[in-house]
Amino acid sequence: MSNELYAVVGNPVSHSKSPRIHSLFACETGEPVEYTAIQAPLDDFAGTVRHFFERGGKGLNVTVPFKEQAWTIADHRTPRAEKAGAANTLYLDNAGELVADNTDGVGIVRDLRDNQKVPLKGARILVLGAGGAVRGVLGPILAEQPAALTIANRTVAKAEALAHLFAGEAGAATISACGFDQPEQPFDVIINGTSASLQGDLPPVSANVIGPDTVVYDMMYSLQTTTFNQWALDNNAHRVFDGLGMLVEQAAESFYVWRGVRPETASVVEELRND
Ligand code: ATR
After folding, report:
1. Tens-level pLDDT at each residue, the chain (275 residues)
2. CB of 131 closer than 6 A to ligand 1?
3. Domain 105-242 has CATH 3.40.50.720
4. Rounded to whole angstroms, how far apart are CA atoms 195 and 218?
5. What is the CATH number of domain 4-102+246-274?
6. Any ligand 1 atom below 6 A from CB of 153
7. Does ligand 1 come within 6 angstroms of the Cβ of 89?
8. Ligand 1 centre and the CA of 15: distance in Å?
9. For ligand 1, atom 13: residue with the closest CA
């Protein structure tokens, strides 16, 4: 069988680990998947997507800065993409219409809950940041039924807007919004979804949010311990994780959406750590 074509679209995109991850999935599952990286011009994402599917491409992942555009140009959105306001996965349905999905939220939940065995049900969770990355994961996190979810952000109004947007999905959970200076009690789980570390910054949150049992998850990843996770370790967090597991899990979910086959992820995470 000849290979079917998939790709990640971004700008820049050369740093993306997605081609490596999906090649490992293809090897592991025997699926006939060829996966490349495409740099779209900043002013022609839609044209790049159209051209890819016209050439017979089967599916796309979408990364910075096009996730919101991917959501906008789609003919249909899955419910989880609809709420996320952004899409990282595109494909054509049987009628040839463009469908947008978002697998980021499932990715972080699978990594925390299944791989790291961190219970989210009943947990008190602090989420730092209120941008696109955080909006993309709030639905699946709330679906785990935490006891409380606090969104803290530099621009408090954006945290408040997200708390309002997701209030209907909170179920029995208390959902609240505040600035970084407000939380002072330890949380069970802290998720850093700010882009502060891209500038080598830390969100200025009190070290009192970390207790002896606190698990910290930085949605960023890097070869070395991330700036945020180092700060958490310096303040005696119980365990810290970076976003590599989330990256591999969102990729696995996209692979499943496209191929109907769910790859095993642990060995892929290990391969990437050793790259
Ligand atoms: P992304 O797609 O990564 O979420 P974004 O939508 O631009 O990007 O959101 C970036 C998030 O990181 C926001 O919550 C932003 O705070 P503001 O909403 O106040 O802008 C946060 N952020 C970025 N740089 C930061 C910094 N130096 N300190 C704290 N928070 C920062």
Report:
1. 689 999 999 999 999 999 999 999 999 999 999 999 999 999 999 999 999 999 999 999 999 999 999 999 999 999 999 999 999 999 999 999 999 999 999 999 999 999 999 999 999 999 999 999 999 999 999 999 999 999 999 999 999 999 999 999 989 899 999 999 999 999 999 999 999 988 889 999 999 999 999 999 999 998 899 999 999 999 999 999 999 999 999 999 999 999 999 999 999 999 999 98
2. yes
3. yes
4. 10
5. 3.40.50.10860
6. yes
7. no
8. 21
9. 131
Domain with CATH 3.40.50.10860 in the chain: 4-102+246-274
Instruction: Give the number of the atom of ligand 1 that is nearest the alpha carbon of residue 195.
Output: 12
Residue 35 vs residues 27, 65, 196: alpha-carbon distances, Å: 12, 20, 31
CA-to-CA distance for 136 and 63, rounded, in angstroms?
A: 13
Measured CA distances, 59 to 37, 71, 78, 84, 126 (Å): 12, 14, 15, 19, 34
Tokens representing 182?
Answer: 């407000």
Q: Give the C-alpha separation, 225 to 179, whole Å.
A: 26
**Under a CB-based contact definition with an 8 Å cutoff, are residues 70 and 87 in contact?**
yes
The stretches of 59-151 forming alpha helices (DSSP H) are 67-73, 79-84, 104-109, 132-143
Residue 55 and residue 255: Cα distance in Å, rounded? 20
158 included as an active-site residue:
no
Ligand 1 atom closest to residue 135's alpha carbon, by position in its atom list: 4
Residues of the chain with CATH 3.40.50.720: 105-242
CA distance 116 to 151: 22
pTM of the shown model? 0.96
